[in-house]
């Protein structure tokens, strides 16, 4: 895994960094906690430029957040909740989750987008309430971009600074990265298996009706 990602980034360059970070935000195949530190390794080895990697990683992160933002704006809250109710098992997101996320966004506003981009697992989901809350595209790009730049910068710096211990780190990162992917897959399967659709409103109404 370690050699595969670093070799991929060396050959694909900034476009590869952009693509992986965009995919990570749309549907996380490989978490950014693995992508950007590896990019930092490649920078330290002189294969890529630090500024170019930061710009590509940040741009990819923001680009990957846009489909969720636009989907939320286009579908609207009620249609999105109906979609979650129908496909909640596979999305692992229910209508109640959407209500909770939207309430948090309305309470914290722009700060939710800014700091949400710094928190794993929240990074992608924060785009949905931003779209539902009709946050302007300019503000979304600004705060999402600042948060994404801080996150990619931190991860890239970690990989860059550890490059001198490349051989030692690779021995540990490779098995750890496999464990991380395994845990993510297990978590998703657990959410799918244990998902319980919320009771429909009409069913609850019938339960309370006198016989």
Could you describe the 3D structure shown?
By secondary structure, this protein is an all-alpha fold. It contains 10 helices and no strands. It has one domain. Mean pLDDT is 77; it is low at 201-209.
Largest sheet: none
Oligomeric state of shown chains: single chain
Number of domains: 1
Q: N-to-C SSE series?
A: HHHHHHHHHH
The unreliable regions are: 201-209
How much strand? under 5%
Determine the N-to-C terminus distance: 62 Å
Number of strands: 0
Structural class: mainly alpha
Radius of gyration: 20 Å
Shape descriptor reads globular
Mean pLDDT, all residues: 77
Task: Please bin the fraction of helical residues.
Answer: over 70%
- Provide a count of the helices: 10
Pfam families: VTT_dom
Main location: membrane
Keywords: Cell membrane, Membrane, Transmembrane, Transmembrane helix
Domain VTT: 30-159
Summarize this structure briefly.
This protein has helices at 2-26, 32-44, 50-91, 95-108, 110-116, 122-125, 127-132, 137-161, 166-194, 201-208. It has 211 residues and is mainly α.
Question: How is this fold's topology laid out?
Answer:
Elements: H1 2-26, H2 32-44, H3 50-91, H4 95-108, H5 110-116, H6 122-125, H7 127-132, H8 137-161, H9 166-194, H10 201-208
Keywords: Cell membrane, Membrane, Transmembrane, Transmembrane helix
Transmembrane segments: 12-30, 50-72, 140-160, 172-190
Protein name: DedA family protein
Keywords:
disordered C terminus; 211 residues; globular; single chain; mainly alpha
């Amino acid at each position: 895994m370690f050699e595969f990602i670093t070799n991929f980034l060396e050959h694909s360059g900034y476009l590869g960094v952009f693509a992986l970070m965009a995919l990570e935000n749309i549907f996380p195949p490989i978490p950014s906690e693995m992508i950007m530190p590896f990019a930092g390794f490649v920078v330290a080895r002189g294969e890529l430029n630090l500024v170019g990697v930061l710009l590509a990683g940040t741009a990819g992160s923001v680009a990957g957040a846009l489909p969720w933002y636009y989907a939320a704006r286009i579908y609207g809250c009620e249609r999105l909740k109906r979609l979650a109710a129908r496909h909640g098992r596979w999305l692992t997101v229910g209508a109640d989750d959407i209500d909770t996320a939207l309430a948090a966004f309305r309470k914290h506003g722009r700060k939710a987008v800014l700091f949400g981009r710094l928190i794993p697992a929240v990074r992608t989901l924060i785009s949905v309430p931003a779209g539902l809350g009709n946050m302007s595209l300019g503000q979304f790009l600004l705060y999402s971009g600042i948060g994404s730049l801080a996150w990619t910068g931190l991860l890239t710096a970690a990989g860059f600074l550890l490059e001198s211990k490349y051989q030692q780190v690779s021995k540990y990162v490779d098995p750890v990265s496999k464990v991380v992917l395994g845990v993510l897959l297990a978590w998703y399967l657990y959410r799918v298996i244990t998902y319980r659709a919320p009771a429909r409103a009409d069913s609850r109404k019938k339960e309370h009706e006198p016989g």
